[in-house]
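Troubleshooting log. The previous run stalled partway through. Resubmitting the same two chains, unchanged.
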Amino acid sequence: MVAIAYFSASDNADAYQAELTRLLPGCSFRRWPDIGDPAEVNYALVWKPPIGFFPALPHLKAVFSLGAGVDHLLTHPELPNDALIVRLVDAGMAPQMAEYALYAALHYHRDMDRYAADQAAGLWQPYPAVATADRRIGILGLGALGSEVGSRLAALGFDVAGWTRSPRDVPGLESFHGADGLEALLARSDILIILLPLTSETRGLLTEEKLRRLPQGAAVVNLARGAILPEAGLLAVLKDGHLRGAFLDVFDTEPLPADHPYRQHPNIRITPHIAAQTLVGPAAAQVAASIRRLEANMPIPGVVARQEGY
Amino acid sequence: MVAIAYFSASDNADAYQAELTRLLPGCSFRRWPDIGDPAEVNYALVWKPPIGFFPALPHLKAVFSLGAGVDHLLTHPELPNDALIVRLVDAGMAPQMAEYALYAALHYHRDMDRYAADQAAGLWQPYPAVATADRRIGILGLGALGSEVGSRLAALGFDVAGWTRSPRDVPGLESFHGADGLEALLARSDILIILLPLTSETRGLLTEEKLRRLPQGAAVVNLARGAILPEAGLLAVLKDGHLRGAFLDVFDTEPLPADHPYRQHPNIRITPHIAAQTLVGPAAAQVAASIRRLEANMPIPGVVARQEGY
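Second attempt completed without errors. Output:
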């Protein structure tokens, strides 16, 4: 029998229950803390599970994260050693991420930040057009999300390059890797889009010093995790005008505290972590397919390499 | 010999002179009012030419408009009867128009209007994601610009339909035409994008009554001419919340007067007629190619049918 323990403070439990019991007839969907006989529960579907969750479930084969990120699991003090940790590979998230990235890139490319400020100030002032071929976009991270974003931007004619830790080719994109490659990518990015996983190597990566490698007047878009882009450095490079602006969907603390300096900053646009919302249909389909394969002792996609952190 | 009379208050005369004399060696580029011997001048390249311009130039074979719109010529009281009126068919304008339309569509599709207002109000509040397939976009006008915009939006997965005066097929788009078709298109457009020429038939087309055929909460994007979307009707449907917002690049009077109600309206975003700026390189190349063909008595693209108005 398949029994799934579910916990999330921010997703739609009813919708997941309906979908999973439809896709896996006979499965038992149990919402924490009502988990019934713990010995029967062999799968968990969670977002930021509470302390006490994992010790209560000693027979988990796999823990599915309700999102692309798994840092909320890998930093959990009670994560079981022997269960597979599985992230959603793409539950409708890549297209959403691409939409957001496209919007944010066009926001700066087409001077929409300046026109909005001019409207508020009562000005009427055209800025010269720049062809997309002359606008350099850099993408940090070329996984499923970064590749999709890069391809979409390249299709509009932007001059797109990407950076990854180790060499990786994405058709149509110039690609950089390693520490030297990061310096080179930053130096050629008018708009920098962050789509890296949060790991011990990416935490704090974009220091003030790194941000100063970007061209004067560049903009930064963070769609990954707040901790990759430390706040003090970002505020410093915005303050002296080295950066033109930042479009941020993710933050160290979420919700962003009411008195946080990002909130009312004239050159920062914030959204409440909505760039890629997990869609129940595709997410449940992916979890159900993986459970079927695990029950048949077959390999599944999205298994996290714990040492790598993603 | 080829002699071109040039007038524009808003374009770069030096750049056009350099490009055209390079592309048409031996041609004479004359800036109004320094036109030399009027009998030699057989072409005009203009944007909103002043009174007195046309009577001074009795031997014009063709008048090229420095933009896609020709309403500034067709309403000119001194327009010569026997010269060809030629509009730029696409001087780098279609991609720019597509970028702007994409940005404006994503602005509403991804609730960026709401998130910007929430940021200003100190709120943190996610709105549910909607798949592009469930977002209906309607495009009024399927010429070179409307077709490009429609294809780009369809490529992102939006449910796109278009409307034209007479039947026209654009691959991948549902298409409507005529008066009944307009009602049908409006009824299914969550986001309406206006890309029609300004003619006697389209002037004042989108009355308050027409705007009320749009679904509750729809948004309007005007990239064509202000006179197609009368102001009183738009303000009325915004005031009672039938429309969610309007993204406007064009206005009856430009620059938009400082005390105009659009300027500080919380649900209207304005830009100073920059959706598709004429790029000198492609525009000059198109004009030069057409002049060569006319000198060889060959037909050219973009000739305006005066009765039709575009």
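Takeaways: The longest strand of chain A covers residues 3-8. The CA atoms of residues 90 and 159 of chain A lie 25 Å apart.
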